[in-house]
């Protein structure tokens, strides 16, 4: 969360505008198309749209840009997604 | 980190007898049979477990030549998490040619007895099966260059007949997926 807020701050966005949502049941995960934690959506769009991952209350597997497996997205991917959103509104 | 009822540093390890992905049963070595034993809770789908896996296999390979035994255990609820089913475990174990057994704790009794909490959660036993180290492999799942340094340092101490300087760290990873 602190990484995301830092990226938002750097992009000139309000870091306080992050809405944190807890997905508590398998049914909620399915209806929300939630494929694991953390999932970051900007204006409803996943920063790394999942391909065919099953929904569920689990941890999400990310790949960093150098190929390493990570529990968190690559900061560059977060930055790019924020820039896309800003660019789309400009 | 632990309450009074939990398996703690210096305590004798609870029993462990589980089947691997090929149907063979594995247990802890008897006292004095191995200079150290590593028991690692892991699974197929957790990013922390996946990120640390190669580092832990490297440790198993390198210290295996010195008689250290390594067991990897999956206790996740396979019904709700099909990626951790026995079939998926066997497929992965074969595809990646693990040099260590991958044990299935279907009833989750062993995880409860050991107080395992996350994947990964690393337990190092000395030759008398007393807990010498418990926690994370190293400080950061995103940094392969750390080479499971916490575990290696503890192993080196145990193999030298000493107590690890850092006997406990906070296990870091996904929570074990308990059955409802």
Number of strands of chain A: 4
What global shape of chain B is seen? globular
Q: What do the pLDDT scores of chain B average to?
A: 96
Nearest-integer average pLDDT of chain A: 90
Number of DSSP helical runs of chain B: 4
Helix-strand sequence of chain B: EEEHEHEHEEEHE
Summarize the biggest pleated sheet of chain B.
7 strands, mixed
Question: Can you describe this structure in just a few lines?
Answer:
The complex is a heterodimer of chains A (90) and B (180). With 90 residues, chain A is α+β, with helices and mostly antiparallel strands. Chain A has helices spanning 2-10, 26-32, 75-89; strands at 41-42, 45-46, 62-63, 69-70.
Question: What's the helix and strand layout?
Answer:
The complex is a heterodimer of chains A (about 90) and B (about 180).
Chain A: H1 2-10, H2 26-32, E1 41-42, E2 45-46, E3 62-63, E4 69-70, H3 75-89
Antiparallel strand pairs in A: 1-2, 3-4
Helix pairs in contact in A: 1-3
Chain B: E1 17-20, E2 25-27, E3 36-41, H1 47-64, E4 69-74, H2 86-95, E5 102-104, H3 109-114, E6 118-119, E7 121-126, E8 131-135, H4 149-159, E9 174-175
What does this structure look like?
The complex is a heterodimer of chains A (90) and B (180). Chain A is an alpha+beta fold. Chain A has helices at 2-10, 26-32, 75-89, and strands spanning 41-42, 45-46, 62-63, 69-70. In chain B, the strands form 2 sheets. In chain B, strands 2-1-5-4-3-7-8 form a 7-stranded mixed beta sheet, with helices on one face. The longest helix of chain B has 18 residues, at 47-64. Classes of the chains: A alpha+beta (90), B alpha+beta (180).
